[in-house]
Each structure stands twice: as structure tokens, then as C-alpha cells.
Amino acid sequence: MAQVSSIAEEQASTPLSSSKSITLRISRYNPKHDDSSVFMEFTVPYQKWTTVLEAILDVKKHFDHSVAVRYSCRQATCGSCGMMINGKPKLACFTKISELNSDVITVEPMSNFPIIRDLAVKFERMFETHHKIKPYLIRDDTELESDAKEFLQSPKEVEQYIQFANCIKCGLCNSACPTMATDSSFVGPQALAQAYRYVADSRDKGKDSRLKMIDEPHGIWRCHFAGSCSQVCPKGVDPAMGIQLLRGYLLGFRS
Amino acid sequence: MRESTIMKIHYGTAIAAVALVAVHVLMRLTQGFAESLEYESVLANYKFVPYAIMLELILVLLSIHGFNGLRVILLELKQGRIYEKAVSYGCLAAMIGLIAYGSRTIIVVNMGLV
């Protein structure tokens, strides 16, 4: 225990050595006490490889430990650290300060999500819509039964959906979507892209139920094809294309 | 009605309206602009049955397309069960009202009441 505390003290007293620094503006807001958000500014040293998340953690370590931020893997895999960085939805762990070409970096919570505190937002609505589209293979049989074979797919069949399987549920697409900003009941690009991922999967037999779920007044037809969801995705998923392909099923161009 | 059916109608009416409005514009080009708006000229158009049917079709197509567009915009503006029902039925009633009023003009002229 004493060893742990001495390591913590050593880390806290480590001098910050860097010739370059930026001004990090962090949006502070606690819905329980505050009427509106305020920005707090911190001067943070950085290296060529320093990410925005590392800068925020630096602030927590050296200046203000009460800054609320959600993070986990630090390698763009868990999808926890989505936030608005200089006005655009990005993953903080995947955005290098040196790539932003700015001396001032402003971080805010993601748009279109309710704020828990500071940079942490609630994901309930996104997870609810994700759950609603049944994000799993629907079949009557199972490969676990005896005498059953694996559900084999050709490379061409895999190509139909594989990029959509890269979704990490970070919520950046929903944050960038202009329809999400006005329509609080809209399904959202994340859930629609995942609906396409399973509808296009040759192993899946639940196409009709998924199409029925998204074919409602606040479903797929409210997408205006702004394409901002595809621009901000850190994993290269193209939800806008998935939505257009899904519309093809509903309009009878695809089966 | 399913939303995909409504949107199929929405896209279909748009395509059909573009084609018929193009014919309507071409028909207007056969006359000078001021001349085409003269009272007698307008009445003559309504009394020419094929053209009157086309005008009626344009009215129906644009009313369906326009009021569904308005419904979609209003549904995105605000949400809520009662509001959404009011918007949907309100737009349907307004659409029927506009078609009825426009059709009345054509019918009245053709019955010789003007």
C-alpha cells in the first residue's frame, strides 16, 4: 500500500517537460447544480504523439481532478471517449493534438446526448435503439446442435456487411446527425447502420422484423442523407450508405 | 399505412408532377404570358376537357406531395403522440380541402355556372 502511494506521489510530482503547449478549454457542466456550461482553460504541454485524451488526463492529474470524462481502452476500440473536439465529434484517444493545427483546443460533450457531467454523456437512448433493431443473428436453427454445420459464407457475402460490423457504438455518428438534433424520436444512423449489417448478412433470417421496426414515422425515412455520420466515424463505417441500401429493401430495389 | 408506402407515393407523385408540370409549361408557351392569364383564356383551358383533367391531376399530385412534405417537416420539428396525430390528420384534411377547392373551380366552369 505504501509502495502504491509513493508511486502515485512520484507521478503527481513528475515535471511536465515539453517545449510546446496548448490551451485546453474544457466545458464544465453539472446538470444537478448548473444552469449552463462554462469553459475552464488550462495550459497543457504536449508532444507530437499526445492525444486529446492524454491532455485531459493531464489536466485531471495536475490541475483539476474533478473533470468528468469517460474513457477506457485508449486505442479507439471501446468507443467511450467520444466528444466534440474543436466543434467536431471525435474520439479523444484517437485525435492527436499535433494534427489539429490549433493552439486552442476546445472539448465539449457530444451533441444530441444528455449530459451526465462535463464531458460524460448518457448513452441510454442509443443503446435502446441499438437493442431495438435486434443486433444478433436470427435463425430457427443453431450451429450448436448436433449434426449441424457451420453457417458458411462466401467472401462476397461477407463483403456485403463486414464494414458495418466494425461499429464500436461510440455515438459519434448520432452526435453529428442533423436529424438527431431536431427529432428526439429518430432511430439514428448508428442503429440504422446496424440494422443494415444484419439485414445484409446471408446467415440472418430476421430481415422482415428489422425492416418493419425501422419503417415507421421516426425511422429510416427521416434521414436527409447529410452524410455527416459517415464523415465522423473513426472506424470507417459508412452509415449513410447503409441507410440508402436499407431503403433499397423497403422500396423493392433489393431483396 | 406503412411509412414506406407513404414515401413511395411521395416519390411517385413528385416524378409524375414534374412530367405533367412540364407539359403544362409547354402548353403555356403556345400563348404569350399576359394573354394566357386573360379571363377568357383561363376559362377556355378549363373547358378543354383533356387539359382540365391534366390540371386536376397536377392539383392532386402536388397536394399529396406537398402536404406529406409538410407533415414530415412538422413531425421532425416536435414530437409527441397527440401532436403527431394532429399533424398527420391535419395535413390529410388540408390536402382533401385543397383538392376539393381546386376541383370545384374546374367543375363550376364546366357546368357553365361562370
UniProtKB/TrEMBL annotation, chain A:
It is an enzyme of class 1 (oxidoreductase). Keywords: 2Fe-2S, 3Fe-4S, 4Fe-4S, Iron, Iron-sulfur, Metal-binding, Oxidoreductase, Tricarboxylic acid cycle. The keyword GTP-binding does not apply. InterPro entries: 2Fe-2S_ferredoxin-like_sf (IPR036010), 2Fe-2S_ferredoxin-type (IPR001041), 2Fe2S_fd_BS (IPR006058), 4Fe4S_Fe-S-bd (IPR017896), 4Fe4S_Fe_S_CS (IPR017900), Beta-grasp_dom_sf (IPR012675), Helical_ferredxn (IPR009051), SDH/FRD_Iron-Sulfur (IPR050573). It comes from the Archaea. Residues 158-187 form the 4Fe-4S ferredoxin-type domain. Its cofactor is [4Fe-4S] cluster; [3Fe-4S] cluster; [2Fe-2S] cluster. It holds the Pfam family Fer4_8. GO terms for biological process: respiratory electron transport chain; tricarboxylic acid cycle. Pathway: Carbohydrate metabolism; tricarboxylic acid cycle. Its EC number is 1.3.5.1. The keyword Metal-binding applies. Belongs to the succinate dehydrogenase/fumarate reductase iron-sulfur protein family. PANTHER family: SUCCINATE DEHYDROGENASE [UBIQUINONE] IRON-SULFUR SUBUNIT, MITOCHONDRIAL (PTHR11921:SF29), SUCCINATE DEHYDROGENASE IRON-SULFUR PROTEIN (PTHR11921). This is succinate dehydrogenase. It comes from Marine Group I thaumarchaeote.
From TrEMBL, chain B:
The keyword Nucleus does not apply. It is found in: Membrane. SUPFAM superfamilies: Fumarate reductase respiratory complex transmembrane subunits. It holds the Pfam family Sdh_cyt. The chain crosses the membrane at residues 48-74, 86-107. InterPro entries: SQR/QFR_C/D (IPR034804), SuccDH_FuR_B_TM-su (IPR000701). One of its GO terms (cellular component) is membrane. GO terms for molecular function: metal ion binding. Keywords: Heme, Iron, Membrane, Metal-binding, Transmembrane, Transmembrane helix. This is Succinate dehydrogenase. It comes from Marine Group I thaumarchaeote. The lineage of its organism: Archaea, Nitrososphaerota, Marine Group I.
